[in-house]
UniProtKB/TrEMBL annotation:
GO terms for biological process: proteolysis; signal transduction. Coiled coil: none annotated. This is PDZ domain-containing protein. One of its GO terms (cellular component) is outer membrane-bounded periplasmic space. SUPFAM superfamilies: ClpP/crotonase (SSF52096), PDZ domain-like (SSF50156). Belongs to the peptidase S41A family.
Length: 404
């Protein structure tokens, strides 16, 4: 029986796909149209071997025996095999993205897409959850909340569903509907939310001027994500804020699911005079330090950061650095707790892959994965849209402690 070293497994598989035909009854796959190109850099252990005959036996058996020949789409089977290989790692954040999912991911980071306005993640049990609904979107208007567990998407079970697949199912043309079956802690039964998709335009940074109870002006900078345009939008908002001579600043990263790591370093550099913002630790335990990379304009400005259970990833990096250096106070709820870093790579045929390549630690070496950041002062959210107890407490705290 022929054995294949795992180092060359993917190359051999793709080589077989090129130019190989399989015909049984009415089922014929023309592999010539697939021309993937990929190079492997790191070798697997030399004593690891696999008998790949099973793969082709299964492929051939499907073609010969499966009742619905129209369902035997070679492109879907091909992508499905790669998705299954990646999913076998058991990491919901490491995923292969077929063209549709790859396109949706890039659209979200660019700030313009059609969907319902939900940021997704996974809880400790690896169930699909709502990290945050975006303000003013169909999801937020319908009452979807952070922490909601999505059991089904249009009656498709989400158990073992990858993040890109979930995004792909929820996204869709403006005016079409998608139904989410949601379980919320404290509710006895799951509830169905029928949402009508719309164009979602996400501005990642918004500025407001707030007054403390004694009338002092405070700049409120709400950062909803760390996308492609965040740095530019942040700079514009900071310049406008400083022109109004605020006595302090609140950075609101509640319901911010994260995004680009560089964005968190950029924002942190606005408030820190120097030092490490975040550390990356790879599989070998080697650490890389990402440090303050510019001179900020708010280095001496009194600072409060608002967090909640929808604050994840890059927003936790920013908040964690502020907390470790004692640069400002964290007010709100325990954050989400996503302490891993994914590398995003484009692959042939408009596909892509997200790979967990490292975990991140705060400047003091804390790894907050699955636990989150504990705020310096815990404040439960308001019970109505007109009541924001966390923001109210932050404004009052300026009068009490920071602004003289």
């Amino acid at each position: 029986m022929r054995r294949i070293n795992v180092t060359f497994l993917l190359i051999v598989v793709l080589s077989f796909i090129l130019g190989w035909q399989l015909g049984h009854h009415d089922f014929t796959i023309k592999w010539q149209k697939f021309k993937p190109e990929i190079g492997l850099v790191n070798e697997a252990p030399k004593d690891t071997t696999l008998d790949f005959k099973l793969f082709w036996q299964t492929w051939e058996l499907l073609g010969r025996e499966y009742i619905d020949k129209k369902a035997l789409d070679p492109q879907k089977l091909y992508y499905g095999a790669i998705q299954g290989m990646v999913a076998a790692l058991g990491d919901p954040y490491t995923a292969f993205l077929p063209p549709k999912s790859q396109k949706a991911t890039k659209e979200q980071l660019s700030g313009l897409f059609e969907g319902v306005g939900i940021q997704l993640g996974f809880n400790k049990e690896k169930r699909l959850v709502v990290v945050a609904p975006l303000a003013g979107t169909p999801a937020a208007k319908a009452g979807v909340k952070p922490g909601d567990i999505i059991l089904e998407i249009d009656k498709k079970d989400t158990v073992n569903m990858s993040l890109p697949d979930a995004v792909s199912l929820i996204r869709g043309p403006k005016g079409t509907d998608v139904t989410l079956t949601i379980f919320r802690e404290g509710n006895g039964k799951p509830v169905g939310f029928k949402l009508t998709r719309d164009e979602i335009i996400v501005k990642s940074v918004e500025l407001e001027t707030k007054l403390t109870p004694t009338g002092k002006k405070i700049a409120l900078l709400k950062v909803s994500s760390f996308g492609e345009k965040t740095a530019g939008e942040w700079d514009g908002a900071v310049s406008t804020a400083l022109s109004n001579a605020p006595r302090g600043v609140i950075v609101d990263v509640r319901n911010n699911p994260g995004g680009f790591l560089e964005g968190a370093v950029y924002l942190s550099s606005e408030f820190l005079e120097g030092g490490v913002v975040v550390m990356q630790e790879n599989a070998e335990g080697e650490r890389t330090e990402l440090k303050v990379n510019r001179t900020g304009k708010m280095l001496k400005m009194p600072l409060i950061v608002l967090i909640n259970k929808g604050s994840a990833s890059a927003s936790e990096i920013f908040a964690g650095a502020v907390q470790d250096y004692g640069r400002g106070k964290l007010i709100g709820e325990q954050s989400f707790g996503k302490g891993t870093i994914q590398s995003s790579q484009d692959l042939p045929e408009s596909t892509g892959i997200h790979i967990t390549t490292a975990k991140w630690l705060t400047p003091k070496g804390r790894w907050i994965h699955d636990t989150g950041l504990t705020p310096d002062e815990k404040v439960e959210p308001g019970v109505s849209e007109d009541s924001d107890l966390q923001l109210e407490r932050a404004l009052k705290l300026f009068d009490e402690s920071f602004v003289k």
